[in-house]
Design a protein that fits this description.
It is found in: Mitochondrion inner membrane. The chain is mostly helical and 226 residues long. The protein folds into two domains: 132 residues, Cytochrome Bc1 Complex, Chain D, domain 2; 31 residues. Strands 1-2 form a two-stranded antiparallel ribbon. A two-stranded antiparallel sheet has the order 3-4. The longest helix is centred in the C-terminal third of the chain and has 34 residues.
Length: 226
């Protein structure tokens, strides 16, 4: 799984990052997941980040750090639409949670391009994909082709393999804290029974004297005849 996530990041970096951003993911998220700290630092240092102001009051460019987020392909939404015939490429940080079917939908979308049926209207800048929900005409043309890149681990870069890997990477990116959350949930499930038993015993001990009290009603004495 971790190897697939690492390969998926390579597909995103070399293919998807040309149009799609991942605003919620920083390089520190890679550490101890599919990269070592040194590898993540080296990966981050490949980008230039605007920082500052410096001592002269001006902004300056510096190499990226672990705390920096993945670079965005466009400076703003207007530039993104101008470069894509009016269509806005969605941010992929949480795409598997935002689309019905999650990673399965992404896999089918990336591998499902075909010629449109006779009479189906498709613009010159669009492609036909029956898995795309809005009428099957999609602004993103086919992006994955066999052997278009070379994996670092030597895995054959077929279209289906790249689609599977990038879908796996995007699934992880949607919930990078997933494994940590599950581990904490397991620890809590182990701790809750003894804590509940202690609280129950304390409650019984504290309230025993209240619940065991006995109230007796005594009628007032009648005044004597004397």
């Amino acid at each position: 799984l971790l190897c697939s996530i690492r390969r998926g990041y390579q597909v995103y970096k070399q293919v998807c990052a040309a149009c799609h951003s991942m605003k919620q993911i920083s390089y520190r998220h890679f550490v101890n997941v599919f990269m070592t700290e040194e590898e993540a630092k080296r990966e981050a240092s490949e980008i230039e980040v605007e920082d500052g102001p410096g001592d002269d009051g001006k902004m300056y460019m510096r190499p990226g750090k672990l705390i920096d987020y993945l670079p965005q392909p466009y400076p703003n939404e207007v530039a993104a639409r101008l470069a894509n015939n009016g269509a806005l490429p969605p941010d992929l940080s949480m795409i598997t949670l935002a689309r019905h079917g999650g990673e399965d939908y992404l896999f089918m979308l990336l591998t499902g391009y075909m010629d449109p049926p006779a009479g189906f209207p498709v613009e010159s800048y669009q492609a036909y994909n029956p898995y795309f929900p809005n009428g099957a005409a999609i602004a993103m043309t086919q992006q994955l082709f066999d052997d278009m890149l070379e994996y670092e681990d030597g895995t054959p870069a077929t279209q289906s393999q790249m689609a599977k890997d990038v879908a796996c990477f995007l699934k992880w990116a949607s919930e990078p804290e997933h494994d940590i959350r599950k581990r904490w949930a397991f620890k809590l499930l182990v701790m809750i029974p003894p804590i509940a038993a202690i609280i129950y015993y304390w409650k019984r001990h504290q309230w025993t004297y209240m619940k065991s009290r006995k109230f007796v009603f005594r009628s007032p004495r009648k005044p004597s005849a004397d």
